[in-house]
């Protein structure tokens, strides 16, 4: 029997409060989402080797996720042991076991056997982030303080829209990325919009939605920081144009604080198109 | 000059994350909202006597508030010192000073000189609470875990509505209150509704809105606990009718956990009607 037949690829959808994590990626001696999740998998699934999780969006320290997606390959023999007396499917069995051992700041929202060709990182068509800002002292809510940036200046939604619009499209985002030698910073920014919400639990907040095929390191927070500098009147559109037109990362851009940022969702193609997409992406470039 | 002319009554609107407070009311050796707020007032306002705050809704340990209202009487001489170099009004001056010394889990959303006759407790026409429940494992959000109750059983919105409707109106809520000798438990429950939200930051949650002229101790959480027992199928409407028809607190009612409850708002009459309302309420009964 070939190697790939003895493994089951499992898709995990997870949410986490990033406050007390040093980001997604495992780092020696630090509490990270990846290490916590891999530790939980090691406890509930019998593995020959330590389980290794691949993720769609490698969030930085303090960044949250509501719709993070990752995958892990599990021995088919271990997968078959997942259904218990109370649950019917292996999916429910693994979800229930993981929830039982994970700390309260990570939650597995869904477990499913991944379709053929699925790769959490390389199959993804896009990632959508939300950045939440409170610019009105009368709306600051201590219950939301861990995922909303309390900004001291009032934001002009018209200016935010004008500034964001300048950055949309397929372009080199080097001015907004931490340099990595040899890696391209060409990305396709599909959406960068701002809304002042009037209803629901986010009422009173200014929320930005930022969607692209992929992001390089600190890109969302750099984009948000640059546009907010225009939206609160400290900078103008000419300044933003000159930043966006430069070829390297601009020291003039203040990166927005991590805790206002949440990875909301990851978009994938239909099951049939999955394998094709992953091969294409892998061939073209290495994504973050 | 008479006593009341030398004092300014100030209305404070406050929000807090109740997680790390032992409730509103001061208790020796415990961290409470009242003691924290009074301590902050003592630091920023010159007082002859320690400042004493009167509140609309005395929340229990772990209960949150987004629209809590209280008042404090401040010496007119101290009030006149509140405007600083940067702020024009005494209101803004006191708000800014309090925000500067309060911990991150309390926020003063607004400060204003109260209208004549205003009493945060006795002028209030009603209090509105929200109780948030997540009954679907795929919607559990670690970012909201401090103010949402994760319930293990699925709720039927039709049953919740039927059960709540039985309890609305002017009635003796003794079966749902912790007894206090001599105090009446007659309250006017104006609204007790349930909604499964599909949009916004609370999407996926079941949220109850509970509004009454006033509540006795642990009343909201007892009402919610009783109705949820019907809504998840553990009890039926006949059981609820028998509980509601009894004359003392029922041991069969499970009080819902504190952390799902948030005081959302306090309703007051128009300025002109304020003094009249306070005198009437004070004469009729002592409210919680």
Topology:
The structure is a homodimer of 288-residue chains.
Chain A (H helix, E strand, L loop, with lengths): L6 E10 L16 H12 L8 E3 L8 E12 H4 L10 H12 L4 E8 L12 E9 L14 E2 L6 H9 L3 E4 L13 E11 L9 E7 L6 H13 L5 H9 L15 E7 L6 H11 L4
Parallel strand pairs in A: 3-10, 5-6
Antiparallel strand pairs in A: 1-3, 1-4, 2-3, 5-9, 5-10, 7-8, 8-9
Structure description:
2 copies of one chain form a homodimer. Chain A is α+β, with helices and mostly antiparallel strands and 288 residues long. Chain A has helices at residues 33-44, 76-79, 90-101, 157-165, 219-231, 237-245, 274-284, and strands spanning 7-16, 53-55, 64-75, 106-113, 126-134, 149-150, 169-172, 186-196, 206-212, 261-267. In chain A, strands 1, 2, 3, 4, 5, 6, 7, 8, 9 and 10 form a 10-stranded mixed β-sheet that branches. Chain A has 2 domains: 3-121, Pseudouridine synthase I, catalytic domain, N-terminal subdomain (Alpha-Beta Plaits, 2-Layer Sandwich), CATH 3.30.70.580; 126-265, Pseudouridine synthase I, catalytic domain, C-terminal subdomain (Alpha-Beta Plaits), CATH 3.30.70.660. The model of chain A has no long low-confidence stretch (mean pLDDT 91).
Helix content of chain A: 10-25%
Which chain pair has the greatest contact?
A: A-B, 29 and 29 residues
Order of helices and strands of chain A: EHEEHHEEEHEEEHHEH
What's the structural domain tally of chain A?
2
Main beta sheet of chain A? 10 strands, mixed
Kindly report the name of the CATH homologous superfamily of the largest domain in chain A: Pseudouridine synthase I, catalytic domain, C-terminal subdomain
Provide a count of the helices of chain A: 7
Structural class of chain A: alpha+beta
How many beta-strand segments of chain A? 10
User: What percentage of amino acids of chain A are in beta strands?
Assistant: 25-35%
What Rg of chain A is obtained from the alpha carbons, in whole angstroms?
Answer: 20 Å
Low-confidence parts of chain A, pLDDT < 50 over ≥5 residues? none
Topology-level CATH name of the largest domain in chain A: Alpha-Beta Plaits
What is the residue-mean pLDDT of chain A, rounded to a whole number? 91
Principal-axes shape call of chain A: globular
Question: What is the CATH-assigned architecture of the largest domain in chain A?
Answer: 2-Layer Sandwich
Oligomeric state of the chains in view: homodimer
User: Could you name the CATH class of the largest domain in chain A?
Assistant: Alpha Beta
Q: How far apart are the first and last residues' alpha carbons of chain A, in Å?
A: 34 Å
